[in-house]
Amino acid sequence: MSWPAIQYETLPWTPSAQPLSRRAAKTQPREYGAAKVPSISELPLELSQETLALVERATVEVVRFDATEAHRLLPFTPLLLRSESVASSRIEQLTSSARKVLEAEMTVRASGNAGLIAANTRQMAEAVDLGVPSLESILGMHRVLLEESAPEIAGKFREQQVWIGGSDLHPGDADFVPPHHTRLADAMRDLERFMQRDDLPALVQAAVAHAQFETIHPFADGNGRTGRALIHVILRDRSITTSAALPISVGLLSDTAGYFDTLSAYRDGDVGPVVALFARSALAATERGTWLANELIDVRDEWNGQLTARADALAWQVLDLLVQRPILTAAVVAEEFDASVETARNALERLEADGIVIGGQLDRRRRAWRSPDVLELLDEFAAVRRS
């Protein structure tokens, strides 16, 4: 049985209540076509032998990465989470440096792209911790993502028609019009049942669930980032990943046009391209994650030759923390090692004197120290790399 293509229904269009110019009013359509998403929870899924072989190879590499590379540098998960959230946000044209994102995480009221990406990092962390693919977890992740930037819609399914591309005033010439909001409840319950199946390879299930989620488009905003966080929930639930967030968005980011093309193909009834893309992206994620671990270990070894502190000084312990959290304050170091703030500040100043960190004001009251070596690596890791 082939995978079903979405159908469309014709619906009446009611213009918004906002005043329109005479020209804009004339272009308003009387009706439009909205997607009717087929139920997939019990459908058999057929893939080519080539695609299945690719999925199997990717699965083996993901499991190996999770069991080995993710433990070479502990805890590696926070760095992978930040890198994954940066890459996922870049797909949505939200860009920022690792430094700005980390500073946003440490600031109560972060704004701009860095604040949005910091929220995405919290969302990814919740996805890794949840490991339960359900409507409740999807709503929870969306709430974490938008509770600061758009609290009025955070954690709530949309209550209006949305569309992708075309005019901002109507869906008449849109590239894609997701289902009418009255159809969301049934579509999302069907997706929940699909995510709880155990008869599909985990990467296949994650890819199809993501494509179905993006087709349903259940939120007024934040669908892409939430849909990519959902990938991690499914992989964790299926025990493919256990201790680290696979940076799969780094792979997707290398060909964003191809990524969106596979979503279009999925809506036309061709499920193979999106599954193959996810498998290739998973392979790329393990390669890039291994590269990052190796580079960070090299940086840590170089620091050993730079630091001139006494053998029993706190500064030596701070080096390991700095790899995991490349921007530190004296208060953070003091809490981590149960030391006084003065001792923590002395350790950071020693690192600064030896050229390992650079000090500067985080805000009006706090000074922070950052590792340019680690921050540059994180920026390079999340940068676009085209094959």
What does this entry look like structurally?
- With 387 residues, the chain is mainly alpha-helical.
- The protein has helices at 22-26, 49-67, 69-72, 77-91, 98-106, 112-130, 135-146, 184-195, 202-216, 223-237, 248-253, 256-267, 272-306, 314-324, 330-337, 341-353, 372-382; strands at 7-12, 31-36, 327-329, 358-361, 367-370.
- The protein has a three-stranded antiparallel beta sheet with strand order 3-5-4, with helices on both faces.
- A hairpin with a 5-residue loop joins strand 4 (358-361) and strand 5 (367-370).
- It is globular.
- It starts with 6 loop residues before the first strand and ends in a 5-residue tail after the last helix.
- Residues 133-280 form the Fido domain.
- GO terms for molecular function: ATP binding; nucleotidyltransferase activity.
- ATP binds at residues 221-228.
- It is an enzyme of class 2 (transferase).
Cα end-to-end separation: 34 Å
Fourth-level CATH superfamily of the largest domain:
Fido-like domain
Q: Which CATH first-tier class of the largest domain would you pick?
A: Mainly Alpha
Mean pLDDT: 87
Rg is 23 Å
Can you summarize the main beta sheet? 3 strands, antiparallel
Q: Segments where pLDDT lies below 50 for 5+ residues? A: none
Protein name: Adenosine monophosphate-protein transferase SoFic
Keywords: ATP-binding, Nucleotide-binding, Nucleotidyltransferase, Transferase
Pfam families: Fic
GO molecular function: ATP binding; nucleotidyltransferase activity
